[in-house]
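HUMAN: You are asked to prepare a plain-text protein record giving the amino acid sequence and the backbone structure tokens, both parts labelled.

ASSISTANT:
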Amino acid sequence: MYLKGQICEGDAIMQRLDRFLAEAGVESRRKIKDVIRSGRVCVNGTVVKVPEQKIDESSDEVTLDGNMIEGGKRRVVLMMHKPAGCVTAARDDRYPTVMQYLPAQYSKLMPIGRLDLETEGLLLFTNDGDLAHRLIMPKHQIEKTYYAEHVGTATQEDVEIFRNGCELRDGTKCLPAILQPLGEGKSLIRVREGKYHQVRRMMASRSMTVNYLKRIGEGELELGDLPLGMTRELTREEVGKLEAVKFDEKFFG
């Protein structure tokens, strides 16, 4: 799949110079063309003042003010409001995938973790493998918050069982979690692990079949009012909060 602004010549992917620099994050998109036209950019040692100039990012050497620019190295962390009915996979023979909702310029990002087919809500993507690894490793216990609509109403007994680590119907023991009843048939659930269909199975273990599930938070990040099926880049501050996440011993206090 080639992005807008790219052409294929043989085995090389040719990219417009202005898009290459924009994706490398060297300057705001509005200023990139002025930077190029000012003569500050060289390709293989030759000054290029044409923003539309095509380059081979795999072999051409691009410099700005004499400094080497490595395309695709700008770290990107993207938040998606995943719709229900699509799977967290690069491709699937049966269902639409989350990749189909990514804008073209983000098509090379990888999802951080997963959301089930019928679960909607906050899903992160990145090109930073180290950050992705940190966030999905069980030992880091990143808190995730879900809103659920379900059969029945959560009781104080359910709250205590979740707090102590509920046992699923197949005998699997879960880590302690927070169950916050929101009235009849509605709850917030906060967990620090990601077993298969975990929240649905935890609720089912207490005879509360989940009819609707939405992830609304991860760490200190909140889905907020991001429209269904849409994406946005995280700010530096938000990425910093993800990197700084540590196990909170007061979580269950």
Observations:
- The mean pLDDT is 87.
- The domain at 77-252 is CATH 3.30.2350.10 (Pseudouridine synthase).
- The radius of gyration is 23 Å.
